[in-house]
Amino acid sequence: MYTAIKGIYENGVLTFLEPVPNLEKSEVLVMFLNEEKPTKTKKRIPGSLKRLGELQGKRYSIPDDFNEPLDDLKEYM
Q1: 12, 52, 58: which is closest to 32 by C-alpha?
Q2: Which residues in 18-32 are b (16+ Cβ under 10 Å) and which e?
Q3: Nearest partner of 7 among 43, 25, 37, 31, judged by Cα
Q4: In sequence order, what are the residues at sequence separation of 6 or more whose Cβ sits closer than 8 angstroms to the Cβ of residue 18?
Q5: pLDDT tens figures, 8-21
Q6: Longest C-alpha distance within the chain, in Å?
Q7: Whole-prediction pTM value?
Q8: What are phi and psi for residue 75, nearest 5 degrees?
């Protein structure tokens, strides 16, 4: 069984932030998590994403039978 315990390593000393299970002897695996600075997000290019409702009244329309079952799938229904 694996148990993960959070801790801080500083100046050669490991300090656990949670209680350690009461074991006489156990193998351990120590992973050092490097804190990385968040990467910059890409700037949004105007016109690259249509807002909801922008297409209303344009040439685009939804057919009346949009929610009807497809002929190809009738045998499964």
Answers
A1: 12
A2: eeeeeeeeeeeeeee
A3: 31
A4: 5, 6, 7
A5: 888 999 999 999 88
A6: 74
A7: 0.40
A8: -70, -20
